[in-house]
């Protein structure tokens, strides 16, 4: 027997492409705009969200029959806040510089629409294993976009990837900079992320015309 | 073949066009064809009102009004370069129109610098228009004709050509094509290109070293030259008195973006556009009023002594309010950018509001923007975004007024009215 049934595989793979939280549902945009100027920050943010959403979905799914309906949002917030505090403390302990870059946005994972959205839409109605897969899948879908945006913004904006000068040195005018190339300052500022996300949405929808809304 | 020889060039193009119909590259060919000749197609059903001014003629009128500015800018580019070299060498130089301004030397330098920018602008922009026309399978739109002429006039002369090309790709694709092409864009494409350049490559777009040819590359060498604009002087609290006279500013013998310097030629172009009914005089007039109003407010603040002379804003605030109109890109922006019929307001009342706010915001951004004392393109882009909202409320207001009028109207019963009329006549 395969590890994952076909249905389970879809739980992970769907949010990566055709039901992507960022490009299709357009959720969780704020953090995607704010922290993707560097690839490193994007990767850490993606890992954090994978952890929070994967574990959070399981916890909510386990408690789904005990939570009174009227206070379910508060319970969800407590669960996600606990997990986010764990992530925040770990980052502060082991990657202090990075946690300063991510600053408030680690804390704001609590209000990330994707997380509350998956709790509400999936974890409250499904078993722990399925909820876990759904959480991982959605967080991966979010992370993939973050990493793509982070890749282009850091490469074009700073000429680096993970802080390594892949295009040459802009001050010493080596590599590509010797030809007169210059970093694109526009890619550093958050509005550029909006445009890069928009371009990804454009490419995705022109590849799969079924995704285009009729209106 | 012998029969083909008797065909004119025009006829042959028509034949090729019929052979190409439905093929993928047809729009690209059609664009070249209609650029040279009027199409041979006629409509087959219904009656159609034909106006003499189609989109292409509208665009050409704007380009015609831009040609004098382009030629003047070539002379000015050369003049500013040689004047800056003289100034750096300590040689005093008096401006004389035919002595040292309209000289072949100036023109030639300007031509070799400006012409490549024009070619890149049209080449890259039209290439993108062709690609999108082929992808979408519709005819090539004329929208880029004016944008392609505006772009070279609003960039500094030493802008690297590859930067310009990148910005044009961005501006045409993101500013126009994603919204559906010509006529559907929210933002003015030429200003989108300018804004992209400004935010992406600020060292090439602002400061005191970019406005005169070679000012940048000579920095730090023995023969360094200055390329400061008037607004730049003012932003550093330096007076321009004795450096540039009012007539220099008005006629445009000052450093700046390639084509923005001459308020006089912008005025002529504006009059031409107003009399040919291409551009809206309401937007131009209200923008001038807006700029004057904001300038007066700032003059008042400076005169009342609310801010000290050492304040960062004093230089620009105390600048005579009406002189704002003749320095920087305000005149060019008001005449050629704000009046874009696609991105501006459509209603007459809306045009007054839209233009007024452009003038107001331009001067406000000028004064309060320490890094870059020019705000015209930002003000126009901002108001482009608000233009549909302004129109919406103007139309809602009109609807409400008419509804009210209808409610208050007294409607006489027809019989009573007839009786009254009868009584009167008898």
Query: What structural class should be given to the helix and strand makeup of chain B?
Result: mainly alpha
Rounded to the nearest angstrom, the distance between the terminal CA atoms of chain A is 44 Å
| Mean pLDDT over the full residue set of chain B | 82
**Largest interface here, residues on each chain?**
A-B, 11 and 13 residues
Instruction: Describe the global form of chain B.
Output: globular
The percent of residues in helical segments of chain A reads: 55-70%
SSE sequence of chain A, one letter per element:
HHHHHHHHEEH
Helix content of chain B: 55-70%
Strand order of the largest sheet of chain A: 1-2
User: How far apart, in Å, are the first and last alpha carbons of chain B?
Assistant: 89 Å
The helix/strand order of chain B is: HHHHHHHHHHHHHHHHHHH
H/I helix tally of chain B: 19
The amount of beta strand of chain B, in percent, is under 5%
| Mean pLDDT reading of chain A | 84
Oligomeric assembly: heterodimer
Kindly provide the radius of gyration of chain A, computed on alpha-carbon positions and rounded to a whole number of angstroms: 19 Å
* Share in β-strands of chain A: under 5%
């Amino acid at each position: 027997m395969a590890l994952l049934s076909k249905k389970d595989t879809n739980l992970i793979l769907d949010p990566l492409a055709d039901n992507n939280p960022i490009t299709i549902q357009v959720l969780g945009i704020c953090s995607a705009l704010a922290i993707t100027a560097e690839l490193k920050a994007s990767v850490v943010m993606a890992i954090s969200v994978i952890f929070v959403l994967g574990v959070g979905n399981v916890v909510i799914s386990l408690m789904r029959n005990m939570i009174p309906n009227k206070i379910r949002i508060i319970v969800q917030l407590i669960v996600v806040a606990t997990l986010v505090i764990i992530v925040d403390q770990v980052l502060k302990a082991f990657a202090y510089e990075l946690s300063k870059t991510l600053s408030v946005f680690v804390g704001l994972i609590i209000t990330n629409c994707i997380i509350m959205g998956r709790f509400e839409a999936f974890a409250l109605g499904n078993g722990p294993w399925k909820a876990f897969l759904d959480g991982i899948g959605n967080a991966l879908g979010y992370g993939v976009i973050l990493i793509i945006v982070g890749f282009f913004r850091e490469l074009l904006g700073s000429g680096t990837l993970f802080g390594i000068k892949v295009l040459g040195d802009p001050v010493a005018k080596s590599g590509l900079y010797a030809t007169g190339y210059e970093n694109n300052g526009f890619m550093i500022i958050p509005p550029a992320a909006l445009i890069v996300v928009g371009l990804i949405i454009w490419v995705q929808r022109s590849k799969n015309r079924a995704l285009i809304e009729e209106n | 073949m012998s029969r083909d020889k008797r065909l004119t060039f025009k006829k042959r193009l028509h034949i090729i066009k019929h052979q190409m119909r439905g093929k993928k590259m047809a729009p690209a060919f059609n664009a070249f064809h209609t650029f040279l000749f009027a199409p041979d197609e006629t409509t087959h059903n219904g009656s159609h009102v034909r106006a003499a001014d189609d989109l292409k003629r509208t665009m050409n009128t704007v380009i015609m009004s831009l040609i004098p500015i382009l030629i003047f800018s070539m002379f000015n580019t050369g003049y500013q370069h040689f004047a800056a070299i003289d100034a750096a060498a300590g040689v005093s130089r008096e401006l004389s129109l035919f002595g040292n301004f309209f000289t072949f030397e100036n023109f030639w330098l300007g031509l070799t610098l400006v012409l490549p920018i024009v070619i890149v602008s049209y080449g890259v922009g039209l290439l993108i228009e062709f690609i999108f026309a082929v992808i979408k399978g519709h005819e090539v739109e004329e929208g880029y004709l004016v944008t392609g002429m505006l772009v070279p006039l609003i960039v500094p002369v030493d802008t690297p050509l590859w930067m310009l090309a990148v910005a044009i790709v961005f501006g045409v694709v993101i500013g126009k094509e994603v919204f559906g092409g010509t006529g559907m864009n929210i933002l003015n494409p030429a200003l989108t290109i300018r804004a992209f350049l400004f935010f992406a490559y600020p060292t090439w777009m602002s400061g005191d070293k970019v406005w005169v040819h070679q000012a940048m590359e000579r920095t730090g060498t023995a023969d360094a030259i200055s390329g400061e604009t008037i607004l730049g002087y003012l932003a550093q609290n330096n007076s321009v008195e004795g450096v540039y006279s009012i007539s220099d500013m008005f006629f445009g013998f000052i450093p700046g973006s390639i084509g923005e310097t001459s308020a006089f030629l912008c005025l002529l172009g504006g009059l031409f556009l107003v009399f040919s009914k291409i551009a809206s005089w309401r937007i131009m007039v209200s923008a001038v009023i807006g700029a004057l109003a904001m300038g007066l407010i700032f003059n008042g603040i400076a005169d009342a002594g609310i801010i000290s002379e050492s304040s960062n804003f004093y230089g620009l605030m105390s600048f005579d309010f009406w002189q704002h109109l003749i320095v920087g890109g305000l005149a060019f922006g008001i005449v050629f950018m704000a009046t874009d019929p696609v991105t501006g307001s459509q209603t007459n009342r809306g045009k007054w509001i839209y233009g007024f706010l452009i003038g107001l915001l331009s001067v406000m951004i000028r004064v309060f923007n320490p890094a870059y004392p020019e705000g015209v393109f930002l003000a126009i882009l901002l108001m482009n975004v608000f233009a549909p909202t302004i129109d919406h409320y103007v139309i809602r207001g009109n609807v409400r007024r008419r509804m009210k009028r209808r409610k208050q109207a007294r409607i006489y019963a027809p019989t009573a009215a007839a009786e009254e009329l009868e009584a009167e006549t008898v």
